[in-house]
Amino acid sequence: MITRWFSSGRRSFSSLSEQEILALAISSEEDDAQIYRSYADGLRADYPASAEIFEHMAEEENRHRKSLIDLYKQRFGDTIPLIRREHVRGYYERRPDWLVRPLNLEKTRAQAEEMEQQAARFYRVAAAQTQDADTRQLLGDLAAAEANHQEEAARLTEELLPEGVRKVEENDEKRRFLLTYVQPGLAGLMDGSISTLAPIFAAAFATGNTWTTFLVGLSASVGAGISMGFTEAVHDDGVLSGRGSPVKRGLSSGIMTTIGGLGHTLPYLIPNFKIATGLAIAIVFVELWAITWIQNRYMETPWARAAIQVMLGGALVFAAGIFIGNI
User: Fold this and answer.
1) Among 161, 181, 213, which residue terminates a domain?
2) Report for 66-80, 224-238, 291-305: range of highest mean pLDDT
């Protein structure tokens, strides 16, 4: 009972018979072929050349599966027991990242490379655990084939994905990342950091009360985040503009807007007004520097121009808040 509880119903790999090892190899190849097809399907609309590479890799996995089935039928007959990777303790698992849309090009390539390495390791261990000469030879050959898939992938990449096409795909992926996450997030951070300066510091200097200032800042930040998020999500569905999922853009914009406002709001949880205000002002400068860096790093805005735009806008709003708070 205790042993069964600890093993969660899974078998150890060392306890598998040669028949079960072959059955596990067959189901693993079937799964990997399907995963590669899912990668191809997820990349086809935006990266057709990369999708074709994954189609070739799926076909290769199918050839491996056929070789394994032929050997299995020769040794054990037509009935293949149902044993999958989740039935074996310590066996490598596949993260369901092929379900995520849109697929990240570089992450997908890296995951495929990891899959090949895991498969090669499995075949090496499986070959060492079998006694039948034909089975051992096939598993050893498959281990070598999986290990050589990196070279095969490189050959296919050179054949199907020349430098020009690869560059276009990488630029398209970068553009989608910028339009879906960076641009809405940057707009939100700017709005949250700058537009909330006036109400927060106006409340601070008008009341001199840190708790009241915190409540004003919290409401301004959350309200601005909700407004920016909904505005970004509903004004463009991304179909014609190519800016990606409206939900993702809305979340990026809304969350970053709220963070931008909360940065210089949270110091007002400190009861001492002078300390809270000094810390809030210091955080404002950090926020403005972060906005400038993002503009320069991702939007390719010259550093000096970005700094002048952000600092000037922030200074004007900050001054307006102090002026209104002292009326």
Assistant:
1) 161
2) 66-80
